Known about the structure:
mainly beta, 5-stranded mixed sheet, 6 helices
Amino acid sequence: MSSPEKKRKRKTTTKTNKKKPSPNPSLPDDLLMSIFARVSRLYYPTLSLVSKSFRSLLTSPELYKARSLSGQNECCCLYLCLRFKPYSNSTWFTLCRKPDQTLTNETTKTKSSGYVLAKVPIPPSPRAHFSSLVAVGSNIYNLGVSKSIYQPSSSVSILDCRTHTWREAPSLRVVPMSLSASVLDEKIYVAGSYKDDYGDSGSSKNLFEVFDTKTQIWDPDPIPCSETTCNFLNCKTACIDGKFYVVSDVIYRDVCAYESKEGRWDLVGLGSYMEHHLFLDSCCDIDNIWYFVFQGRFIWYDTKEIQWRHLKGLVGLPKFPPSARIRLANYSGKIAVFWDDVLPCNGGDNKKMIWCAEIALEKRKSYEIWGKVEWFDHVLTVPITCVFEKVLAVTV
């Protein structure tokens, strides 16, 4: 081959290489927004890891307007509050779908559920406790936010689960020594106790306030509550059959109910052992039936029939470890159950696994409820010192 021909060939090759298209062409934000609006929100945590621009679009208010215009229904999402010692602030995770659903072990290839807990990308969150957290719509309320373990506070913070940002809400009227909150008709009912500055040293008074989440206003007129009917110090609360129930502390176990329509308190009994089970953190309400995990077994309580029954079925659900911390949530009419399991010690680096299961419910004519385990899987591994506070279902 002659020298001029070689030069021409080299030039052609070089020119061809220069014209090679970019493998990752950028897309306009409007087009990405339209695509994201049609994707299940369960994939958003994974998509947010792609880039900062993706993360910004996925937490923008405009995205939820686009979802509404595209006909996407609101989605029920689960948020978990964890605290990693020795830090007092809370860290939030959400259940999401993962792209790779195939897991391989040494002997067989098994199919994963496709779910995992992803850390929510928000700044350090205020310290939170089980009884101070409630969810209304797309917001999670943290009441009586304390800046330290020994410093109570009247502050209220709101986590917007659409934009993953915190904002302040109107504070409680007094600084609570303890409180427990529950939701009824989009209003947050708070019972607890506060220190009486004008009474005897160390004495306390009952606290009872109502917050309207629509108007973002606390009830302007303090609602009286009897000091003798029920002691609200270290109480637990629940909303059942349209009433707000307060179960006094472990020693007394009195139960009183507030009837909002008539504005009065009544001393009541919820049935055998109901008061005891409401003190458990492993409970949730679905269609006015309360589900509990007690001594490793699922039980349910019908407020109309005033009866306890065991939840039947549950084929394939693993046994809960004796020391497991268990949390339940109403997941669109199904039970979402989370529990932890300590891994064997490995050179001092102690870990525990957080598991999740989704249980569908079926009511049968023989006054029985059966549970069908749709899936269960290991969704997160954390240090053994991690505290599992609460799981909440929000609508976004």
